[in-house]
From TrEMBL:
The keyword Manganese applies. It comes from Candidatus Chlorohelix allophototropha. Keywords: Hydrolase, Magnesium, Manganese, Metal-binding. Signal peptide: none annotated. The keyword DNA damage does not apply. PANTHER family: MITOCHONDRIAL COENZYME A DIPHOSPHATASE NUDT8, NUDIX HYDROLASE. Its cofactor is Mn(2+); Mg(2+). Residues 25-172 form the Nudix hydrolase domain. This is CoA pyrophosphatase.
Length: 206
């Protein structure tokens, strides 16, 4: 356990606290968690499927997260708070490793700030209490599967008169796309560049 915690400390990307605050963009600030946890000894990424009751992105696959509240002060607090509200995860049980490039959502007009997190104790069982209004399903995808070339597809779409590259990741019957896929793509890119490989024991796979 202590060895994993040391790896997490050594692998963390140092991000200034000021970068955790909302920028001056006209899009509404939001934050999500890319939560990686060990399941049967293998690193898995947690995803949720939005319910059909929410206002935006009904039935779509996403990371846990939501919009920034002024009481949050910083966006990492937003990500942890939303994960607690949606899944019942205690923020004290999680450690944030770093932050990824922000992604915009065209339909809902958010600027989404992603934070990578792991449980403080890798052996801890996280008991989820999903919010039935917001969350339709919780599932995990093994990180090694997402790193396989077969999981990735790139398409060019025409949106509002402009060409836009759309990223897709497929695992079994799950299709991850939109801002979630963009964020996932950046996360996997960080791993391929050397970040967190030892922590997730992926150095032999990439």
């Amino acid at each position: 356990m202590r060895e994993v915690e040391k790896k997490a400390q050594d692998s963390a990307i140092d991000v200034p606290q000021r970068d955790f605050k909302p920028s001056g963009t006209t899009r509404r600030p939001a934050a999500i968690l890319v939560l990686v946890r060990l399941l049967e000894g293998e690193p898995n990424v947690l995803f949720i499927r939005r319910s059909q009751k929410v206002r935006n992105h009904k039935g779509q696959i996403s990371f846990p997260g939501g919009s920034f509240d002024p009481e949050d002060v910083t966006l990492d607090v937003t990500a942890l708070r939303e994960a607690q509200e949606e899944l019942g995860i205690n923020p004290a049980d999680l450690k944030i490793l770093g932050v990824l490039p922000a992604a915009d959502t065209v339909v809902s007009n958010f600027m989404v700030h992603p934070f990578v997190a792991i449980p403080h104790n890798p052996a801890q069982v996280l008991n989820f209490i999903p919010d039935g209004y917001e969350v339709g399903e919780i599932f995990h995808v093994p990180l090694p599967e997402l790193l396989q070339p077969r999981a990735f597809t790139l398409e060019t779409w025409r949106i509002n008169g402009h060409s836009r590259q759309m990223v897709f990741y497929t695992y079994r019957n799950y299709v991850i796309w939109g801002a979630t896929a963009f964020i996932l793509h950046n996360f996997l890119g960080e791993i391929k560049q050397g970040h967190w490989q030892e922590l997730f024991e992926l150095d032999k796979l990439v």
